Amino acid sequence: RLPLALIFGLLAAWITWIATARRMSFSWEINMGIAQREFTLFCQPLLNTRAQRCDGVEILLRWNNPRLGPITPDVFIPIAEAKNLILPLTRYVLNETAKELHRFPADPKFHIGINVAAAHLRDDKILLEDLNNLWFSVNPTVQLTIELTERDALHDVNAGLLRALHGKNIQLAIDDFGTGNSSLSWLEKLHPDVLKIDKSFTHAIGTDAVNSTVTDIIIALGQRLNIELVAEGVETPEQANYLQRHGVHLLQGYLYAPPMPLEEFPQWLAEHNG
Ligand code: C2E
Ligand code: CA
Ligand code: CA
Ligand code: CA
């Protein structure tokens, strides 16, 4: 009879193997998805409630995987990051967005937000090269905003890179502000133009005393440092009113519009900007 320890050992090895195989196959899936262009771009409007108009959009990826069914970005983005596939995925988004710019107003003040993982800043040449090849090559008539998530720690960012981005009229936004563990050091390192208040703080308004205090503090911080504030996940008129009363006028959320396919955006804009 096999000793129990051996059986458990084999079982553990088998489980590890299955887990590895699954992750490997997920890398294969992402590569395949890029090659076959299975990813599509959606966009969600950003409302400027003071001017009562849409000032920009955020680009959000969708993946309708023909083998596995739809997969949400909350699932595939962290895996792409862990598997070193986030750079090709970001390049795909930049490239596809640049090809679709005719869907958006040709206005240098119209913002297009693209989510970029901090991995893209690891080496200051990667981002600038990708932007030159994939974005500036089409002579964009809109302003690009790079939304950086503090999901993983930020490496030392070269001040030259930040100057170069600003010189090219690119804005930097810190996404999900307040949810990472190094928010304050990011402010100092990046000198961002925009802070995006995470939806967990927006949802806390009127319901959660501790988190809504954090919301107030983030707003105060942005105002003191002269950083533009955008609130995401705005779902109710109460949240919108509270944010506006506290000086946050750029709002994004289901209250205004869900993410939509890029083809639908021109009509949505015509109906909303009049
Ligand atoms: P995020 O950048 O914080 O994007 C905002 C998320 O909030 C989106 O989820 C959006 O659909 C959702 N949302 C918008 N309005 C509301 C609302 O009123 N209520 C609620 N509850 N949710 C709202 P989505 O599209 O599932 O994306 C999830 C995350 O995946 C994004 O969070 C972003 O971190 C990542 N992601 C999406 N597309 C890309 C991409 O192209 N590149 C990278 N690196 N990450 C991406
Ligand atoms: Ca974002
Ligand atoms: Ca966010
Ligand atoms: Ca988020």
UniProtKB/TrEMBL annotation:
It catalyses: 3',3'-c-di-GMP + H2O = 5'-phosphoguanylyl(3'->5')guanosine + H(+). It comes from the Bacteria. It is an enzyme of class 3 (hydrolase). This is cyclic-guanylate-specific phosphodiesterase. The chain crosses the membrane at residues 2-20. Its main location: membrane. Its EC number is 3.1.4.52. Keywords: c-di-GMP, Cell membrane, Hydrolase, Membrane, Transmembrane, Transmembrane helix. It is found in: Cell membrane. The keyword Iron-sulfur does not apply. Residues 23-273 form the EAL domain. It is a multi-pass membrane protein. The chain holds residues 244 to 517 of 524 of the full protein.
